[in-house]
From TrEMBL:
Pfam families: mRNA_G-N7_MeTrfase. It comes from the Eukaryota. This is mRNA (guanine-N(7))-methyltransferase. Keywords: Methyltransferase, mRNA capping, mRNA processing, RNA-binding, S-adenosyl-L-methionine, Transferase. InterPro entries: mRNA_G-N7_MeTrfase_dom, RG7MT1, SAM-dependent_MTases_sf. The keyword Transmembrane helix does not apply.
Length: 210
């Protein structure tokens, strides 16, 4: 119970940070006079952020929410949650895509995705850092339809902290780091291969625990 309090506090903090960032981005875009705001939620997961976008208190604009994730189950759950919470007519302005963003960009069957005013990548960019090439390709595909003057909002992990945690685990010949706020497992294959003095952490596979 006590152990979970830390991770719950982290989750609340993460949600607060995302909420502030999302509201700020919507305000920026709408104050520039955009009437229909297109948003692309990259690595959307189970749709934790869709309601943050759709319920931000801006009544004068129409919001088109687009979401892409590699995991079909996550997208199905996001759609289900949305159906439970939104009036039917709102759902028509939402699009969902399943795909690996390191490999391809979300595209409609016969045309490109409309230009996006906001591209949001929340707690997911680090998954693309298997190599420099996959990170570049991910960012290229995620932002390919971002319009001129559009906003890219990202939250991700602090790689220097992850590096520090990895070093501490490796020193103890363990593959888990744990403190009062977080528990992270490191992959037994990729951790020994990493340069522990590096400032750039590529290819280190981590699994955060909730
Ligand atoms: C930690 S979750 C974050 C979900 C959501 N953005 C949030 O903040 O609640 C990371 C998500 O990234 C997705 N993901 C990881 N690699 C991906 C990739 N290459 N392409 C698309 N989605 C990916 C996972 O399936 C997962 O749903």
């Amino acid at each position: 119970m006590q152990e979970r309090q830390g991770s719950r506090a982290m989750k609340n903090l993460n949600n607060l940070v995302k909420d502030v960032l999302i509201r700020w981005s919507l305000q920026q875009v709408t104050s520039a006079g955009v009437a229909t705001v297109e948003v692309l939620d990259v690595c959307s997961g189970r749709g934790g952020d869709q309601m943050k976008f759709l319920q931000a208190p801006i009544s004068t604009v129409r919001l088109c929410y687009n979401a892409v994730d590699i995991a079909e189950a996550q997208i199905l759950e996001a759609q289900k949650r949305l159906r439970q919470r939104l009036p039917l007519e709102w759902l028509e302005s939402c699009r969902f895509f399943i795909g690996d963003v390191t490999l391809l960009a979300p595209t409609l069957p016969d045309e490109p995705l409309p230009w996006q005013h906001i591209v949001s990548i929340q707690f997911a960019l680090h998954y693309a850092f298997k190599s420099k090439a996959s990170a570049r390709s991910f960012l290229h595909n995620a932002t390919g339809r971002l319009c001129g003057g559009g906003l890219l909002i990202i939250t991700t992990v602090d790689s220097s902290k992850i590096g520090e945690f990895a070093r501490q685990a490796a020193e103890k010949q363990e593959f888990v780091f744990k403190n009062e706020l977080a528990k992270i497992s490191f992959d037994e294959v990729s951790l020994p291969r990493c340069d522990l003095d590096s400032k750039v952490w590529l290819g280190l596979s981590i699994r955060p625990h909730r």
